[in-house]
Specification:
This protein has 8 helices and 23 strands. The strands form 5 sheets. A 6-stranded antiparallel β-barrel has the order 1-2-3-6-5-4. Strands 7-8-9-12-11-10 form a 6-stranded antiparallel β-barrel. Strands 14, 15, 18, 19, 20 and 21 form a 6-stranded antiparallel beta sheet that branches.
Length: 391
């Protein structure tokens, strides 16, 4: 290789280096965009990720399926001749779900839809013990917009929810809040029994909301608004709803058979608190003390014992000596709520149920054959009184 060739190669290499350096200096540096994402885009991302909707979207999705229910009652009805409640479309056959107390004793029922069209309705089925009812209208499919039923067993305390109904007759009103608690026991006013497995919410529920849907953030019905707890009769931050799991269990049977047969045990008593635990010499303050066993009840037939003596401690008289229920079907019983919720969720008429009881210092099992609860039977289960008012 001659000298001129070497010089030419060096010059060519230098030229390539200079061109590469120049390109590097003049190439724009790619900086990640910091452009702000709009609220709408954020909502779209959230919706795509977990199916949740905004409150606006929930209302738009659900409002056409929520109805106003007007009832006419006899002139001698203590609640007055007229009443207003809410309901929602269950299917495309014209079935509307509402509360039993909304249509109770009604001589005439009128259902009004979002577009203002009204129809006469007839009662298809009612269930006193869960405060549920089904009415039916002869409306065309273009009017009927069934709402989707969600799974209330997936609810968590603190989860946001929304309620739609007709409070004080104000049609199509929406309120929002959170799930305050689940698995509550709701005393049914003036009826002598309790509705188990109730959802508690702080979403505003007022007279006229009864029968309307409680919705999760996917726009699914997870409950039916039924009552408030108040000294005045107006909303005070505590509302109650029947869970959708109960709706899914009861409503199809009401549509088919007009009534639902509930199992029952036939006992009354009280939850064991620390004071009662001391009286009974119990280490743990849990369980349910049986005080009375109703005649001809499943509990009576199974041989459950009620109280047989009275003991006074610090001026308080305690009825003691009855069986103490510690478990039901291998599940721990802390209070009567656990028994009633288990009955509601898991049992039907004719089933066997195993109660673990403490009697005379010994733990044993008793098998109960569950019979049908009669509407004429009042079962006070020993829990404290409440100021719940049905709406």
């Amino acid at each position: 290789m001659n000298k001129s060739t070497i010089i030419l190669g060096v010059l060519l290499s230098a030229l390539i280096v200079m061109l590469s350096y120049s390109i590097f200096l003049n190439s724009p540096i790619q900086i990640p965009s910091t452009e702000k994402i709009s609220d709408n885009e954020k909502n779209e991302v959230i919706t795509q990720n977990n199916g949740e909707l905004s409150l606006i979207e929930i209302f738009e999705k659900s409002e056409s399926g929520v109805v106003r229910i007007n009832v006419k009652r006899p002139a001698n009805d203590t609640r007055g001749i007229g009443g207003i409640g809410s309901g929602f479309v269950y299917d495309d056959k014209g079935h509307i779900i509402t509360n039993d107390h909304v249509v109770e004793n009604a001589e005439k029922i009128t259902v009004t839809f979002l577009d203002g069209r009204s129809y006469k309705a007839k009662i298809i089925g009612k269930d006193l013990f869960t405060d549920l009812a089904v009415v039916k209208v002869n409306a065309s499919s273009e009017v009927l917009s069934p709402l989707s039923i969600g799974d209330s067993s997936m609810l968590q305390v603190g989860e946001p929810i929304a309620a739609i109904g007709n409070p004080f007759g104000l049609s199509g009103s929406m309120s929002s809040g959170i799930i305050s608690q689940i698995g509550r026991l709701l005393p049914s006013q003036d009826r002598g029994f309790q509705i188990p497995d109730i959802i508690q919410t702080d979403a505003a529920i007022n007279p006229g909301n009864s029968g309307g849907p409680l919705l999760n953030m996917k726009g699914e019905v997870v409950g039916i608004n039924t009552a408030i707890q108040s000294e005045t009769g107006d909303f005070a931050g505590v509302g109650f709803a029947i869970p959708s799991k109960t709706v899914q269990k009861i409503i199809p049977v009401l549509i088919q058979n007009k009534t639902y047969h509930h199992p029952w045990v036939g006992i009354s008593g009280r939850d064991i608190d620390p004071d009662l635990a001391d009286v009974l010499n119990l280490k743990d303050a849990r369980g349910f003390l049986v005080i009375n066993v109703l005649d001809d009840s499943p509990a009576k037939k199974a041989g459950l014992h009620g109280f047989n003596e009275t003991k006074e401690v610090d001026g308080i008289r305690y009825q003691i000596g009855g069986d103490i229920i510690l478990g039901v079907d291998s599940k721990i019983v802390r209070k009567i709520d656990d028994i009633l919720i288990h009955l509601q969720r898991e049992k039907k008429v004719g089933d066997d149920m195993v109660l673990q009881i403490l009697r005379d210092g010994k733990v044993t099992d008793i098998v109960i054959k569950l019979n049908e609860r009669q509407s004429s039977i009042l079962t006070l289960n020993g829990t404290s009184s409440s100021n719940s008012t049905q709406r």
